[in-house]
User: What shape does this take?
Amino acid sequence: MTQWFSPGAWRQLGKPLGGRRGGRMEDWFQRTAWWSDNSAWNTPWMTVGETRLQPLRDLVEIVVSRFTGRPLELDLQTHTARFVLDSLALDPPEDGSDARSRASAPSSNAVGGDSLHGVLREATWDDHQFERVDIEVAEVWLDMTTPPTLVTSPIDIVVAMRDEEAARWLESAKPGWSIRPLGSGRVMARPNRWIGLITRPTVKAGSVHIDVEAIDVLGRRVKLPRAIARRVTRTVDVRTALELRAGDYTGELVSVTLRHPGVRRQIGLKEIRDALRGGLNRFRV
Assistant: This one.
């Protein structure tokens, strides 16, 4: 992971942690020394799984206190995401189960099982704008390797955008077509200037179903009788690890639900320390 420094980088090393535990950032650095060095592995306080997990919870609190409300950038291979972090939180399992005994744990050495919830605002992806992005992860684990490995269950992402923006995105995927939202869940799709298709798209189980309700010929609309009205189904390839799960078009907002299979990645302590010390605002994955 590579980062670039923000011109307005924060360098307040003594900035207090947010949340109920309090403390300072340097305290967190000391508590996570074992992430890159086994010397702390067998100390008494490290033998309790929940105590081992606390540095991850503290890290989330630090991120919230340092980065909430700030413009951030994330480079993902050939794509760039820009956003403002609105909220981020880890919550313990509601059933109060012993995390180390849960069947969904990635290994016998894993601790955690907390759920993660995040909200992004003012988000853009390759210059496409979104009103809000909600991120939900049912389980987040630390597999106690050295350095530890962050493991998550599938990640659900709900993206909300204006219908005009959704139409612009569709036009970029369908060169030569004119796409215009009509409201009430309907869309006008024109392959040329003479003919337009008045459609009602829906998304279910990774496929887009398009019901053609009427035809517009030179500005004159002809409603199709139900007997000959046509439904076209297309499987959407989003060309990433994301899976299209559902979609909704209500009022002027289009909501799309995507799913990522989950993350399994070692946590580099040096990169995290550099980001927290410098207040970086751009990251590369």
Remarks:
- The longest strand covers residues 110-125.
